[in-house]
Design goal:
This protein is mostly helical and 123 residues long. Helices cover 78% and strands 0% of the residues.
Length: 123
């Protein structure tokens, strides 16, 4: 069994976003890459060092594909959709809703900071 090449995951997703943009437009590509794939990647990076090591390069590529203005618009859209979503479908406990919301807010905050930072640095 061959080990997973984590960089191939985000490279494939970035290539797919470019195809989506060509076929369906920038909003669809942003929704796919930032609203779905990057969100999932950040979540995985919080508990998996291999994902965490790849995160800066993934973010850098997203920033190369889309303009800062396009990214700002997508982040605002994600924030609004998260605020408007009703948790009533699953009927979790109040504590579960608060935890899920805090986790989502934290994850989105990390994504926003990474994508909108004036300069990406390395340590």
């Amino acid at each position: 069994m061959q080990p997973i090449a984590f960089h191939e995951i985000w490279l494939d997703q970035c290539d797919a976003a470019r195809r989506i943009e060509t076929r369906f437009g920038t909003d669809a590509a942003l929704d796919y890459l930032v609203g779905e794939k990057l969100v999932n990647f950040v979540e995985a990076a919080m508990t998996n060092a291999a994902f965490a090591r790849e995160l800066p390069r993934f973010v850098s590529e997203v920033r190369a594909i889309f303009s800062q203005e396009q990214i700002k618009t997508e982040i605002t859209r994600i924030e609004r959709s998260r605020c408007q979503r009703s948790p009533g479908h699953r009927r979790p406990s109040r504590a579960g809703v608060a935890t899920a919301t805090a986790t989502e807010v934290s994850r989105l905050s990390v994504i926003k900071e990474l994508l909108l930072a004036p300069v990406l640095g390395t340590a």
